[in-house]
Amino acid sequence: MLNTRLWLRPLRFSVIALLLLTLLPWACTRKTVSFNTTPEPPVAVVVADTLTRLADSLKGKPSLSTARKVVLTKEEERAAKEKEKAAQRKSKKKKKKLFLGERTKKAFVKSGPKGRNQVIEIFYYLRYFQQPNPYAPARYYYNSKKHKIFKATGEITPDMKILHGPYKKMQNNKVLETGYYALGTKHLRWERMDKNGILLAKTHYEMGFPRDANISYYGNDRSLINEVVPYINGKLEGDYAKFTIEGQREWTGQFENGHKVGEWTHYWGFRNRKQHIYQYPESGYDPEVEEPELIKEYNRNAILIYDKETGLDKRGMTEQEQAPKGRAVPKAPAKVQPKRARP
To answer: Biased-composition ranges for Basic and acidic residues (predicted)?
Structure first.
């Protein structure tokens, strides 16, 4: 019995060694393990250099599925490209720029030295001319020849491009002033910032009139404006205007920090023609002057007869002498007597 066990022991080791040699190649082979109980679908062969049909897309964008890709002919490929270009052109059509129901056009002007210190103003103006409110304290327009925004001091003519729409003033990519224009007048909220983006002033306008302005009228129907006194936070600030009972301008100027600043204009009282221009300090924080300085004067024919800067002075002359050479003084039309009624 002992001899039998001794004989079987080498045989047992031989069987185990043979079994390990058989299983070793199978154990070293890599096999993908899948936890999906459904059988894998057969792999589809995709032909190279194919185009996706419009039917194989979602809302014009190629889908992720490649199951339905087909090869297009040259004619079909050309037609697909043309259709795609037409769709792009249609999406790039310019939309009408509207503000408060009026068609506008965008423009910009640059001022100052080139570089970081250059000031850029981005704005819009009316595509078709409209006359601003004659009672507005200040009216603004764009001169395309001089590439500059002006504040109108006299009559508004159709060749002036009336500001209408958003406005932005920038320097070195920093916003200095923002607001809106409506038919040549300041409208809604206007903000002014320094170069660091700190808010300096905020004013609300209603078609040119400050929201807190003190407005007086002729008569009780409030249709004829007499005077517009601007107030901001209880202090005189902004554009001032005074009108005659006929609706003509009599005085225009500007307040800052409760004081008169800049140029103040006195008018003749017809056709908004200027008569005198007085100079006040440039800033409301400068010492206030008792009497302003006369810097320009015009006669009734809108001819400059006095200019302090150039030394021109024709105030004591007749209208014929005041007129520039080669320019005749227009004569007033003869008065027509009314016809008497027959007895």
So the answer is: 309-324
